[in-house]
């Protein structure tokens, strides 16, 4: 039988409760996920059901944008780490900085050059909607502390004015993006860094930093924007006790204006893959366990922030990204795919192209992604691709060009129909059973698709055999 973890069971109950009225981004949920009040313990906080929208959404867009988008250069890795890496003696980034801007040019000056003159949040959100994404997560602040909203708390050791409403764009860019996204039905979220490299209190008095800066600023942005998703980060220098994360979590889930529907990740302070609504996988290849809700986050290239040093070969192809989305969903997760805008507010065309192409695929094959659960055969993996499931349907995601047929061992149910999801006529595919293994023939037209989807309709609740200790030759391999 298909085994469902307690987290997916709770999420399912939430979805049922929501059936009376779909939650829309412009009109946050009125009914609470639960009337329970959460206590400052992990046992209590981890008992909170996952809001049902998250598993329905499956695909989101990540936006990483700030003063680092001005130099937009690293030799390798994450361009948003420019400030920190430019201070490392003899590093490639330090040499680049001194050559291009001068040895005495402070990072804070980049904020003035973050002009956002071509920033068009409506156009951005049109692209996001066309991609098929259902939610958007944007940097409210990053480790450099620069805020994209009118934070009354933002500063560095060298700059008292350190947010986008008073320097650089001189616009509340986060509010503009939230408004544009909500008009298009996108669920808008934030990225929030717990630590800030060069905040004066962080450098001198961590306890005061937490009390006088971190907590009030977090509550300010959450209260003003009511995010659907909060991507916590920058927590690794201390554990959750130092950050007083219990206080933040109980306020968020008991009192905040988004307590009924907000989802957070697992970065509360050395708690990754231990505590949190959703576990994080950063450039993890989509390989994760469905036993707990999780999210794969990654860029289209090798960086989150825009990196001018990346050439065309650094960017993943349409096929690679769609295959990634397919694999992630087959393992029960969500994909949060990043774009890094330029300093003047443009999303690079190559990133727009990839998003629009994913959207075209989802327009045809979205039924195999949105609201699905992980492969009922998990942890078995198949040489030809992966599976997702919904109700009494199994969706076979066929990756790349295959031979004329694929095999599916271990399914106990009787198959009542088999057809290509892209085929509106639902033309039956030829199939047979060979030694208790279902074999489905692939038509020539389907073989031309880079990621094609076959629908199997079965009798009753999906039921599969327990995976063998040693993989069968004809079908799956044990997931390692």
Return the CATH topology of the largest domain.
TIM Barrel
Total E-strand runs: 17
- Overall spatial form: globular
List unreliable stretches of 5+ residues: 1-32, 471-480
Give the name of the CATH superfamily of the largest domain.
Answer: Glycosidases
Q: Mean pLDDT, as a whole number?
A: 91
Integer count of domains:
2
Number of helices: 15
Distance between the termini: 22 Å
Highest-level CATH class of the largest domain: Alpha Beta
- Sheet of most strands: 8 strands, parallel
CA radius of gyration is 23 Å
Strand order, sheet with most strands: 5-4-3-2-1-8-7-6
The CATH architecture of the largest domain can be named as: Alpha-Beta Barrel
Secondary-structure class = alpha/beta
Kindly estimate the percentage of residues that lie in beta strands according to DSSP. Answer: 15-25%
What share of residues is helical?
A: 25-40%
Protein described:
The two termini are 22 Å apart. The chain has helices at 6-18, 42-45, 53-57, 82-86, 92-100, 110-113, 121-130, 173-183, 200-204, 206-225, 240-243, 245-254, 318-330, 349-365, 444-447, and strands at residues 59-63, 135-139, 187-193, 229-233, 263-264, 279-282, 294-299, 334-339, 380-382, 385-390, 393-399, 405-409, 415-420, 431-434, 437-441, 451-458, 476-478. Helix content is 28%, strand content 18%. It has an 8-stranded parallel beta sheet with strand order 5-4-3-2-1-8-7-6. A 4-stranded antiparallel beta sheet has the order 10-11-16-13. The chain has a 3-stranded antiparallel beta sheet with strand order 12-15-14, with no helix packed on it. α7 packs across α8 (173-183) and α7 (121-130) runs parallel beside α14. It folds into 2 domains: 42-368, Glycosidases (TIM Barrel), CATH 3.20.20; 380-478, Sandwich (Immunoglobulin-like). The longest helix has 20 residues, at 206-225. Mean pLDDT is 91; it is low at 1-32 and 471-480. A hairpin with a 2-residue loop joins β10 (385-390) and β11. It is an alpha/beta fold.
């Amino acid at each position: 039988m298909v085994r469902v973890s307690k987290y997916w069971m709770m999420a399912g109950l939430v979805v049922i409760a929501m059936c009376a009225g779909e939650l829309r981004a412009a009109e946050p949920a009125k009914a609470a996920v639960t009337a329970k009040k959460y206590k400052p313990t992990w046992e209590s906080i981890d008992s909170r059901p996952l809001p049902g929208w998250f598993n329905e959404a499956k695909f989101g867009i990540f936006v990483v944008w700030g003063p680092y988008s001005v130099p937009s250069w690293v030799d390798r890795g994450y361009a948003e780490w420019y400030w920190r890496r430019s201070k490392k003696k003899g590093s490639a980034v330090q040499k680049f900085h001194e050559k291009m801007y001068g040895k005495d040019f402070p990072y804070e000056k980049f904020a003035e050059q973050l002009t956002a003159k071509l920033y068009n949040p409506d156009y951005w959100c049109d692209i996001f909607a066309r991609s098929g994404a259902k939610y958007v997560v944007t940097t409210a602040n990053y480790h450099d502390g620069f805020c994209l909203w009118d934070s009354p708390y933002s500063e560095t050791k060298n700059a008292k004015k350190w947010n986008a409403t008073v320097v650089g764009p001189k616009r509340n860019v986060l509010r503009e993006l939230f408004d544009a996204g909500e008009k298009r039905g996108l669920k808008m979220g934030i990225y929030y860094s717990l630590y800030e490299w060069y905040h004066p209190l962080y450098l001198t008095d961590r306890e005061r930093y937490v009390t006088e800066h971190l907590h009030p600023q977090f509550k300010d942005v959450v209260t003003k924007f009511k995010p659907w998703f909060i991507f916590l980060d920058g927590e690794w220098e201390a554990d959750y006790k130092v950050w007083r994360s219990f206080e933040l979590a109980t306020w968020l889930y008991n009192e905040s204006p988004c307590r009924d529907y907000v989802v957070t990740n697992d970065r509360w302070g050395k708690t990754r893959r231990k505590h949190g609504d959703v576990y994080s996988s950063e450039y993890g290849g989509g390989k994760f366990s469905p036993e707990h809700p999780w999210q794969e986050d990654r860029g289209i290239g090798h960086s989150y922030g825009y990196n001018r040093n990346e050439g065309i070969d650094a960017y993943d192809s349409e096929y690679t990204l769609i295959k990634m989305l397919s694999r992630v969903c087959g393992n029960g997760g969500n994909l949060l795919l990043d774009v890094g805008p330029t300093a003047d507010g443009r999303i690079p065309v190559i990133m727009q192209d990839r998003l629009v192409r994913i959207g075209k695929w989802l327009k045809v094959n979205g039924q195999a992604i949105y609201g699905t659960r992980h492969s009922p055969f998990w942890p078995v993996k198949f040489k030809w691709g992966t599976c997702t499931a919904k109700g009494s349907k199994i969706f076979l995601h066929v990756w790349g060009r295959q031979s004329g047929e694929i095999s599916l061992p271990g399914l106990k149910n009787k198959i009542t129909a088999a057809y290509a999801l892209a085929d509106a006529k639902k033309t039956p595919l030829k199939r047979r059973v060979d030694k208790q293994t279902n074999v489905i023939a692939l038509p020539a037209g389907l073989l031309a698709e880079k990621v094609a989807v076959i629908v199997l309709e079965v009798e009753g609740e999906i039921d599969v055999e327990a995976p063998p200790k040693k993989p069968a030759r004809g079908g799956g391999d044990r997931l390692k």
